[in-house]
């Protein structure tokens, strides 16, 4: 089942100045159509309290709600899909567990990982890090523009149509060059929710990508 995947994914994060709910409110008011709720610090009751409010906001604005990990919450709230950060996760089993209707995205920092995600029926992939990022620190090599160009070319050669999004340290100044690589879209967090004016930052991303 082919899903609609938005070209700009906004990812919430634990930050001092804004709650996850406030981040979603601002993003949706600015026109966001894809929200990824990424909270790895709360218990299930706290997560569901957040998610239920965020789901209502997303519903009001016509935005898709994706939750990072926490697939055990499937069916307990109005969640359209899940993004799995574990790069060793078995997506074939996850798909069987979640069913075809649920959107399922994954993370990868290698082209081989992208090929595996496509084979195991992921709906999209976040591919990064583009450059150094403080949102989700890791030791993986930076992909860079050439890395995205190479990935796009190899996937095309193999006739793989998996939507791949650049993620990790992306700023609005990078967007034009990233889109020129042929990448499907971009996922962003800190460049938007930690900007001086979050709404304006989101609109800048949106205008350049869409």
List the helices and strands and how they pair.
Elements: E1 8-11, H1 20-29, E2 34-37, H2 44-61, E3 64-68, E4 81-84, H3 91-98, E5 103-108, H4 111-119, E6 124-127, H5 144-157, E7 164-166, H6 175-180, E8 185-188, H7 190-193, H8 198-209
What does this structure look like?
The protein is α/β, with parallel strands linked by helices and 210 residues long. It has one domain: Alpha-Beta Barrel (TIM Barrel), CATH 3.20.20.70. It is 39% helix and 16% strand. The protein has 8 helices and 8 strands. It has an 8-stranded parallel beta barrel, surrounded by 5 helices. Keywords: Magnesium, Metal-binding, Thiamine biosynthesis, Transferase. InterPro entries: Aldolase_TIM, ThiamineP_synth_sf, ThiamineP_synth_TenI, TMP_synthase. Pathway: Cofactor biosynthesis; thiamine diphosphate biosynthesis; thiamine phosphate from 4-amino-2-methyl-5-diphosphomethylpyrimidine and 4-methyl-5-(2-phosphoethyl)-thiazole: step 1/1.
In a nutshell, what does this entry contain?
The protein is 39% helix and 16% strand. By secondary structure, the protein is of the alpha/beta class.
């Amino acid at each position: 089942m082919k899903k609609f995947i938005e070209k700009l994914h906004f990812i919430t994060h634990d930050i001092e100045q804004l709650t996850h709910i406030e981040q979603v409110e601002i993003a949706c008011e600015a026109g966001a159509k894809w929200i990824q709720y990424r909270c790895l610090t709360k218990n299930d009751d706290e997560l569901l309290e957040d998610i239920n409010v965020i789901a209502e906001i997303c519903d009001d604005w016509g935005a898709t709600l994706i939750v990072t990990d926490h697939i055990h919450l499937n069916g307990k709230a109005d969640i359209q899909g899940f993004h799995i950060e574990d790069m060793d996760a078995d997506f074939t089993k996850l798909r069987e567990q979640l069913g075809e209707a649920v959107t399922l995205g994954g993370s990868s920092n290698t082209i081989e990982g992208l090929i595996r995600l496509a084979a195991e029926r992921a709906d999209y992939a976040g591919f990064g890090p583009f450059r150094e990022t403080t949102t989700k620190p890791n030791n993986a090599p930076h992909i860079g523009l050439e890395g995205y160009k190479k990935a796009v070319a190899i996937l095309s050669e193999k006739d793989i149509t998996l939507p791949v999004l650049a993620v990790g340290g992306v700023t609005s100044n990078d967007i034009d060059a990233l889109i020129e690589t042929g990448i499907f879209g971009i996922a962003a967090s800190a460049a938007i929710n930690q900007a001086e004016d979050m709404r304006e930052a989101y609109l800048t991303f949106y205008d350049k990508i869409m």
